[in-house]
Each structure stands twice: as C-alpha cells, then as structure tokens.
Amino acid sequence: MKKSHLDLYLILPIKHFIEKKTSVGILLIVAASLAMIVANSPFAESYHNFWKQYIYIGFEDFIIKKNLLHWINDGLMSMFFFLVGLELKRELMHGELASFRGALLPVAGAIGGMIFPALIFYFFTQGTDATDGWGIPMATDIAFALGILYLLGDKVPLSLKVFLTAIAIVDDLGAVLVIAFFYTSEISMNNLALGAFFLLVLFFANRIGIRNTIFYAVMGIGGLWLAILLSGVHATIAAVLAAFTIPTSKRINTSLFLRKARLLTSKIKRYRLKSKSKNNHTDEMITETIEKFSQLTEDATPPLQRLEHALHPFVSFIVLPLFAFANAGVTIDAEAFTFFKSPVTLGVIFGLIVGKITGIFLFTKLMVLLKICTLPKSIGWKHVFGLGFLAAIGFTMSLFITDLAYESEIYETQAKMGILSASIIAGLLGYFYLKILGN
Questions:
Q1: Which residues are CB-contacts of 80 (< 8 A; sequence separation ≥ 6)?
Q2: Rounded distance, CA 25 to CA 32, Å?
Q3: Rounded-to-integer distance, Cα 120 and Cα 204, Å
Q4: CATH fold of 3-184+234-249+302-438
C-alpha cells in the first residue's frame, strides 16, 4: 500500500479517533464490557488468576513484590494521577480555578458532591464492617462524564462543559486527599522523610529554572514515587505532588519566539534564492534550519504543557482502558443478583446517583442564593441538575478506591456491581435529559 493510501485509510482515522474527546469514554465502555464478557465466560477463572500473578522488581535484598493488578493500580495509574495533577495545576495557574470567585462555585459544588455520597453510603452500611468504603461514591470519572457531554455537541452550552471540568478536577483533588489520609497503610517515617527530600529537590529545581523534563522524570519516579511507595502512603499521591513541581514558565517568551521564528524563516528564504539549480548541500542547510523550529517551539512551551500533551494519549488510550479491563470484570452468578439487596451495593448506587445530584445542586444553589457566586453564562438550574447525573458516573476513581477500601472479595464485588450499575444509569439519564433539554 502506498504511503498516501496508508495515511488516508489507517493513520488519519486513528489520529482523528485519538483527538476526539468522546474516544476515551468509548474505549472505557469497550474495555469494561470486554472485562464483563470474559469474567462471565469459560475463561473467567483464567481472567481472575491472571491479575494475581506476582511480578518482582529489584535486586538482591531490595525487591518490590506486587501482583499484576497492583502494578496496574499503583504503578500505571500513577501516570493518570500525574496527569490529573498537571491539569489541576494548570487550572489553578491559568484556568477556571485561577481566580478566587471563579473557583468558588465549582469548589462548592464538588464539596457537596463528595459529602452527600459519603453520608448516604454510611447510612446504608452503618453497623457493619463495610463502612470503610464511604469514599467509593465520592469521585467523578471525568473522562466518562466529559465524553458524554461532547457526544451531545451543541445541545449543551460550552460553559457547562467548562463548569463540569472544574467540578471534576476539584473532585479528583478531593479523592486524592481522601486516599492520602484515609486509605493509607502503616507508614514508614524514614521512607516518607526520603520522599519529602526528593519533593524539596524537585521544588528547588523548579525555582532555579531547570526545565529539562528528563530530570523531573528521574527524580520524580526514581526518587519521590519510589520513596512514597515504600513508605506505605499510596504511590498515586507522589504522582500528584510531583505534578505540582513541574514548571509552568517558558525558556523564551512569545515575543522572542516570534523574532527568532522570523529570522529562521528569512534564512530559509535566502537559502532557496541561492539555490538556482538542484543543490543537495543547500537542501541540507534548509532541513537543518527547519529542524531548529522544533527546539524553538520546545523553548517557547512550558514543561507542564509539553508533559500534558505527551502523556494524554498514552494515559487515555492505554492506561485507563487497561485499568478498566483489569478491574471491571465481575463474575455474575445467581448469587450476584442478591447483591442489589446488600448495603454496599445500595450505598454505592444511591450514594453516586442521589448523593451527587443532591450535593452538587444544593451547594451550588446555596452559593448563588447567598449571592457569593453567580452561575456561569448560558447555564440554568436545569443544566446544573443534568450535570449532577454526569458527575454521578464514578467508574474509574470509584473502582480505584474500592481496591483500597476492601480486602474482602465479597465487598469488592458488591461495590463493583454498584459502581457499574450506577454509572450506566447516571450516564444514560444524564445524556437523554440534557439532549431533551437542548432540543
């Protein structure tokens, strides 16, 4: 096949798919569905046993031993949390959360959307040893929620997409804090102190102007992440902390970039004028000059933005689908349907759907009634109610917290049944409600 045909029939469709906001949500649905199919097929036992295989990393007396599921949840998912940290820092520095008044409304909505689900879950599970899962219905799956919003296209105002993004980012930060303070095992103070040292090194490097992303990768993974992992604090916390040390400033400002770009452009034009006939040497000089644009662009782009763009495809299209496939597989038998009577499953379902909608709507309404904040333009209270449905899609973060909250396989299965059921119901109701509202 010719290169032009390859670009047309293979590369361009893949590139288009990756760039679409809805693609992440579609892949997560496919991965979760595939996991459910395999977990309820003759390969179910092999599926569950596969994730229990242990992988050893290290040498001699220094060996880290975890099963494959934990390497995905503690290791690969750290990349997801690192990306969350980068997005949160960008929003705090230049986005919707940059101003106090701009941040106040989504922060209030997110807090309401975390408190009510936790209270509802506790109401269902009080008096049992399953109350540790109160953090499960607190989180919103930003990829799924935004994916559904983008499927709706122009039927929802752009400001609603921005508002949901801000709420989901604050929600993710809340989930990170919950994991740090409530879902942490025994702590090794020596390793924690070592992690604090590496964190200070990263902040100091930012302050003195180091912009090399490889330096931050080595110190962040080989230093901070490893120390936090060994300390007993969940390793994903290290990923968020590392993200906050990434510089947001550029080596050169926009004015200098434009001047240098004009100089390089002029140089290319001069080379072309000198080349009256085909001249390989001149072609090489032109190519070398064009290559300098790449370095120039890098110097004019903040490391935070470069890392965000570089990581987003891998996290969205490899890490999250793999996580969904590894965690969403619930084997459904005759007993599984009785789980819908269990406090854990009911607590997750009602916590996500009722708790999220109630918490976000009431706290947002309260801030507006007290005249502390105003609703963003083009958004009405019907939109906020619909947004509550989409925020009730807990999927990724809820599955993640389930793994931390429970050691009991029965509670894990009950929680996963609740998460999958609530996410499907909330997603469908949110989509059709906002679609009808937009017509």
A1: 236, 239, 315, 319, 320, 323, 396
A2: 11
A3: 43
A4: Na+/H+ antiporter like fold (1.20.1530)
From residue 107, alpha-carbon distances to 163, 168, 177, 357, 363 in Å are: 10, 9, 14, 15, 9
Q: Are 341 and 101 in contact (CB under 8 A)?
A: no
* Beta strand extents in 69-148 (DSSP E only): none
Measure the CA–CA gap between 167 and 35, rounded to whole angstroms. Answer: 29
| Distance of alpha carbon 304 from alpha carbon 248, whole angstroms | 6
Amino acid at 358: T
Q: Which residues contact 126 (CB under 8 A, 6 or more apart)?
A: none
Q: Which amino acid is at 254?
A: T
Is the pTM of the predicted complex or chain greater than 0.90? no
Which token pair is 276? 């009256």
Query: Which of 217, 255, 170, 222 shows the shortest CA–CA distance to 57?
Result: 222
Burial-class residue 264 by CB neighbours within 10 Å (0-12, 13-18, 19+). middle
Rounded-to-integer distance, Cα 11 and Cα 3, Å: 10
pLDDT digits 0-9 by tens, 122-160: 999 998 889 999 999 998 887 778 778 777 877 888 788
Partner residues linked to 66 by β-bridges: 55
